[in-house]
Design a protein that fits this description.
The complex is a heterodimer of chains A (113) and B (553).
Chain A (H helix, E strand, L loop, with lengths): L3 H7 L3 H7 L4 H12 L3 H10 L3 H18 L2 H15 L7 H18 L1
Helix pairs in contact in A: 3-5, 4-5, 5-6, 6-7
Chain B lengths: L1 H6 L5 E6 L3 H11 L3 E6 L2 H10 L4 E7 L7 H10 L8 E5 L2 H9 L4 E4 L5 H24 L10 H14 L5 E8 L2 H8 L1 H18 L5 E6 L3 E7 L4 H12 L3 E6 L8 H14 L8 E3 L2 H22 L3 E10 L6 E13 L3 E3 L1 H11 L1 H24 L5 E5 L9 H12 L6 E6 H6 L1 H13 L3 E7 L6 H4 L6 E4 L1 H9 L5 H13 L3 E3 L5 H10 L3 E3 L7 E2 H9 L1
Parallel strand pairs in B: 1-2, 1-3, 3-4, 4-5, 9-10, 12-14, 14-15, 15-16, 16-17, 17-18, 18-19
Antiparallel strand pairs in B: 6-8, 6-9, 7-8, 11-12, 11-19, 11-20, 12-13
The chains are: A mainly alpha (113), B alpha/beta (553).
């Protein structure tokens, strides 16, 4: 069961995000549920593996916007770093970023159960 | 303007959110749905379709830059190229600064960063952008005259102000172009044709004054104002208009205007100059100078003070004697009542300063009736106290001849003062007969039927046709003063006078000559057969008490 406290403990800046949701907790939780289903996580991973950096950038950039708006800082931070690297199409090893993202996303998914 | 009314049909303005991320769309909708009706699109193509469909009612577009199918920047380009959509404000949603600048360059109204700022900030930016866009639409709807496409007055003054700000030391002219006898134009050609003429005048002016040369506006029905670099080819410009549009215009020019004056005052001066020649047939340009302004201000002052002057009896009636010269000795036979204005500060004001002014705006009727009544009172007083009956003539203005109550007015005056119609003579200027002869002739006949004695004044100045004269109901012909002046001034040619005297003889009425100043003139007129003489040779116009002394002697 998702709560503000559990999100805070997770590291989300819930005050910030709730303000964007006009103080509506249920709405906030609903949007978090939606972001976990965002296909861009998958697209990002596949594009990195396929070395399609353009596509990877688009996906990372899109995720960055959404995660930022929901203030899901622990997931946002690695996505943000990846986005900046991908912006200049840096061909580096993104595995650690992908792992960090996947871990934090799993942690968040768990909070929903 | 059209758009706003449609927007308000259901009370809320419409906003489109175009973003491929569900969360972002939902979040914005949740923030905005209280105040706006929100449409949503998840990619660029869908957004474009929705915008086209709702182009008349959309107040704002919130646009994500990175979207599938059609990117935000591409969509922005399409919108700005299309006249139907280019005025809808677009706020770009973006997380990188490089795109912010680019989108502003492409015509975005503003941007909102991601992650989104506080909802209040978002709402304020949206509402501000809508406001600016609507203001701009209102401005473009009111800034130009519908008919000619020139600026309207209000905006014209603002642009002139701006022009001055950036060109403080440039020598500028304020010019007022007016169509000559515009009201007659409407009658002659009809309003549709006149509208066409006004359009072509505007086009012609716009071709002469390019936007770097000057600012143009249309004011009122037929006035065009121009603020331009100083030049002196205005007669040529008027010729160009005249040949291009088949219309005569006049220009009042306030050349190298004083920039310390506010803008309206500069154009008031140009207008004064233009009005000065509104009745001239062969003069088309008039340049403002300070004397014009002084005359205008003086006229304004007189108009303003007229009611008080009438109430305080600042107007006095003077009497200029008329002498019958048919016998051996000239005999005082009558007089003409002439008004003088004794202003408490300005002293005596000459009638030629205020009579034409009052004739122009109808105040003359009040003044004339005042003079008629004062005159009748004097006549009655002399009759009663001195037992002397001397008829005095009063002047009637052309406009008064149209007054259907005119006969009643005179009947009332004679009735109130106890004099008879035979005691008061009426001087009616010849030009009044000519302007609308039937109506005037009927009115004069009416007055005559009631026993009033009619003198046709200024005879020879109004171009009566000989044909018409024979039918006129008159009791005396009074020669225009210019006749006397011309006859005796240079060539000493009195033939015209003798012709007029012949006409008078034919009509069986006496001739009165006014403006007689010398003994030579008097003797010549007597010899020619003139019956009555008025002028400085015998006496200047006298105050009532001095005229009374003359009566007694």
């Amino acid at each position: 069961m998702l709560t503000i406290d559990s999100l805070k403990a997770f590291g989300a800046d819930t005050d910030d995000a709730l303000a964007r949701c006009m103080g509506n907790e249920a709405f906030y939780f609903k949007l978090i549920g939606k972001v976990l289903d965002d296909k861009n996580f998958e697209v990002l991973e596949q594009a990195i593996h396929a070395k399609d950096l353009d596509k990877a950038f688009e996906a990372a950039h899109a995720l960055k916007g959404v995660l930022g708006n929901l203030s899901l800082t622990p997931v946002y931070d690695p996505v943000n770093e990846m986005t900046e690297l991908l912006r200049s199409r840096n061909d580096v090893d993104y595995t650690t970023y992908l792992k960090a993202i996947a871990d934090k996303k799993a942690e968040l998914t768990k909070l929903l159960e | 303007m059209k758009r706003s009314t449609e927007v308000f049909l259901d009370g809320k303005r419409h906003i489109l959110i175009a973003d491929d991320e569900f969360v972002n769309r939902e979040m914005l909708e949740n923030i905005l749905c209280d105040k706006y009706d929100v449409l949503k699109a998840e990619d660029g193509l869908i957004a474009y379709d929705l915008i086209r469909k709702n182009r008349k009612t959309l107040s704002l577009i919130l646009l994500d830059l990175m979207m599938p199918n059609l990117s935000g920047l591409e969509l922005l380009d399409r919108l700005k190229e299309d006249p139907d959509t280019k005025n809808i404000p677009v706020i770009v949603l973006t997380s990188d600064q490089a795109s912010e600048v680019e989108s502003l360059r492409k015509g975005a109204a503003d941007f909102i960063p991601k992650p989104y700022p506080q909802p209040d900030v978002i709402k304020a930016r949206i509402s501000r952008s809508i406001e600016l866009a609507e203001d701009r639409q209102t401005i473009s709807a009111t800034e130009r005259d519908d008919l000619t496409g020139l600026y309207t007055c209000e905006y014209f003054y603002r642009y002139v102000e701006q022009f001055d700000k950036y060109h403080p030391s440039t020598e500028m002219d304020a010019v007022c172009f007016d169509v000559n006898h515009f009201h007659i134009l409407n009658e002659r050609f009809g309003t549709a044709k006149v509208a066409e003429i006004l359009q072509s005048i505007a086009d012609c002016l716009a071709s002469v004054f390019s936007s770097s040369d000057g600012v143009l506006c249309k004011m009122g029905e037929d006035t065009f104002l121009c603020y331009c670099h100083h030049r002196d080819d205005y007669p040529k410009i008027l010729e160009k208009i005249s040949s291009g549009c088949g219309i005569k215009m006049r220009a009042g020019i306030y050349a190298s205007c004083d920039k310390n004056l506010d803008i309206q005052s500069r154009f008031v001066r140009a207008k004064i100059a233009a009005d000065k020649i509104s009745n001239a047939y062969s003069v088309f340009t008039s340049t403002f100078d300070e004397t014009l302004l002084k005359e205008e201000l003086f006229a304004e002052q007189l108009l303003e003070e007229f009611p008080k002057a009438l109430e305080e009896k600042q107007f006095q009636v003077f009497f200029q004697p008329k002498y019958d010269i048919r016998g051996d000795k000239p005999v005082l036979s009558s007089a003409e009542a002439l008004v003088r204005w004794f202003h408490p500060i300005l002293g005596m004001i000459s009638p030629d300063k205020f009579i034409p002014l009052f004739e122009g705006n109808g105040l003359i009727a009040q003044l004339d009736e005042y003079v008629w009544r004062r005159t009748a009172e004097r006549i009655a007083d002399w009759k009663e106290r001195l037992g002397i009956s001397v008829p005095v003539s009063v002047n009637l203005s052309r406009a008064e001849m149209y007054d259907s109550a005119l006969v009643d007015t005179f009947e009332k005056i004679t009735g109130d003062t106890g004099i008879t119609p035979k005691d008061i003579y009426l001087e009616i200027t010849e030009s009044a007969y000519v302007s609308d002869s039937n109506q005037i002739v009927n009115r004069v006949s009416q007055l005559r039927d009631h026993g009033f004695f009619i003198e046709m004044d200024d005879f020879g100045s109004g171009y009566s046709s000989l044909n018409m004269i024979s039918e006129l109901p008159i009791d005396a012909l009074k020669l225009d003063m210019l006749f006397i002046r011309n006859a005796f001034d240079k060539q000493n040619d009195t033939r015209m006078i003798s012709i007029v005297i012949d006409i008078a003889e034919y009509l069986g009425v006496p001739v009165i000559a006014e403006g007689v100043e010398t003994e030579g003139q008097y003797l010549a007129l007597k010899k020619l057969g003139c019956a009555i003489i008025q002028g400085y040779y015998f006496s200047k116009p006298l105050p009532a008490d001095e005229f009374e002394k003359l009566l007694r002697s």
